[in-house]
Amino acid sequence: PSCTGAVAQPLRLRVREKRELKKKNSQNQIKSMAKKGIPEWLNSSLWSSSPPPPLVDDRLLRNPPATSVTPPSPPIVERPPLSSSPSTISTAPAPPSKSEVNDLQNGTGNDGAGSETPAATSVEDVSRKAQVVAELSKKVIDLKEVRKIASQGLPDDAGIRSLVWKLLLDYLSPDRSLWSSELAKKRSQYKQFKEELLMNPSEVTRKMDKSKGGESNEPKIESPGALSRSDITHEDHPLSLGTTSVWNNFFKDTEVLEQIDRDVMRTHPDMHFFSGDSAAAKANQDALKNVLTIFAKLNPGIRYVQGMNEILAPIYYIFKNDPDKGNAAFAESDAFFCFVELMSGFRDNFCQQLDNSVVGIRYTITRLSLLLKHHDEELWRHLEVTTKINPQFYAFRWITLLLTQEFNFVESLHIWDTLLSDPEGPQETLLRICCAMLILVRRRLLAGDFTSNLKLLQNYPPTNISHMLYVADKLRAK
């Protein structure tokens, strides 16, 4: 016994020494992180654990990783493609999530952001729902309070997200008494846009002829919609090259309309709501085409740019699945005005003439790079100096498509709740979220080379969305 005690005492001393050494090393590590500008709270086991095994989801099928990656020579001259080819999309449809099965196969219902685990849909969600319902029931809604609630993610119930997004995008006034007149006015205006901008040139010329009030002395032609030869002026002729010719403008729009049609047809091919041969899917596709076409014609400086369909899709989906059938019937017109408002904050990213300006997409990507350098210089240096990964290689799609291609559809809705709710505007919030995405996988990035890191960032791994948004909020400038 005495011998055992004599041996045990130095063993306990060695254990104590190891604990003290481990504690000292941990303190030194934290001090080292502080010197590098990395806040202590980032050293959290929530994100620093070993990477999870890869999962199969719709992101990987819409944007499959390249079989081999070689370091390209900077700088990028042309804009990289934003989406996969149709042939790639159709090869292997992704299995839908449970939430998609519930709402998309039945054609109704679930339009909310899903939580990472079923347990997360309990007390906290019920409390948040009660808070937002109470705010929305007031005669004059407190937008500041609504933004605060929405920043944590909106409940998946009772059309709450549809109403809140309309408030956050300034489509509805906080004063509920004005809603009826505001909606009637804007929906009537959209109807007028459709009549004027989506009309066949033959119908346009006939309408123009009627508006002149001129009556021809020639016998009336029985064929409906036909014009007498004397009524067709040079500018109204299909072969006219005049700048005011409706036919000439119609043919100029053909290329844009074809691009819109191609992109809409491959919007979320894994979701029955947007894809398939059903009448509902085709009606939804037509609605997306109408909105994008009208936007392109009303904004000739930008027109339509590939990827706009991915930004419109979540808005239209939420509005179309509003349990209020009256609101759902006007999902197209409501989505148009909300899409215009959202694009007003991002339109410079889509204007190629502004790419190299202080408001263009390349400057926006530079701001993301500087944000990462400010919060985690070690990671920034490894990515851009050591492995020479130009942030345009991955951030271009992240920013222009508002992260709709990096996460599944339900997760994207949760992220958009935060994007739309920030009083600073969605652009600033988006950059913080992108920076958080880099920080959350910093250990894998610091251990990786050009090829592995580029594959990782172009196919971002599954993550805890709530924690990612928490990290992004911590990056907010104080």
Automatic annotation (TrEMBL):
Molecular function as annotated in GO: GTPase activator activity
Database matches in SUPFAM superfamilies: Ypt/Rab-GAP domain of gyp1p
PROSITE patterns: TBC_RABGAP
GO terms under biological process: intracellular protein transport
Regions that span the bilayer: none
Ranges annotated as biased composition (Low complexity): 80-92
Annotated region (Disordered), positions in chain: 17-36, 41-127, 201-234
Pfam families per the UniProt record, alphabetical: RabGAP-TBC (PF00566)
Gene3D superfamilies on file: putative rabgap domain of human tbc1 domain family member 14 like domains, Ypt/Rab-GAP domain of gyp1p, domain 1, Ypt/Rab-GAP domain of gyp1p, domain 3
Organism domain of life: Eukaryota
Ranges annotated as biased composition (Basic and acidic residues): 204-221
UniProt domain Rab-GAP TBC: residue ranges: 155-423
Protein name: Rab-GAP TBC domain-containing protein
Organism field: Capsella rubella
